[in-house]
Design goal:
single chain, 104 residues, alpha+beta, Alpha-Beta Plaits, four-stranded antiparallel β-sheet, 3 helices
Length: 104
């Protein structure tokens, strides 16, 4: 079971909501290429608030993800897409209930 996670809050600029949504959908192939990113969700709370939640087996995997393609793309497009700097929270997973295989 993974013990490490990230929760990233993204606040889209007014008029950029659809671009943020597309950015997150387009990120899926890149994160799929990360063997140690076990779970990755792109979530939408309301019209302009998005989250990324992902899990990792160890701290090295989490750090690798933070240095990966998605993190770099977020940094490059941050001022264009977001009204404030993405908020990245490092979390420790304490309990989980999940089927063996989840595919969307």
């Amino acid at each position: 079971m993974d013990k490490y996670a990230l929760l990233v809050r993204l606040q889209a600029k007014k008029g950029k909501e659809a671009e943020v949504d597309k950015f997150l959908r387009d990120a899926l192939p890149a994160v799929s290429d990360e063997p140690d990113t076990s779970v990755w969700f792109a979530l939408k709370l309301d019209q302009s608030t998005f989250f990324i939640f992902d899990t990792f087996p160890d701290e090295n995997a989490r750090q690798a993800h933070l240095s990966g393609k998605i993190a770099k793309a977020l940094a490059e497009r941050s001022s264009e897409l977001f009204s404030k700097t993405p908020e990245i929270e490092k979390l420790d997973i304490t309990a989980v209930k999940m089927p063996e295989v989840i595919q969307y």
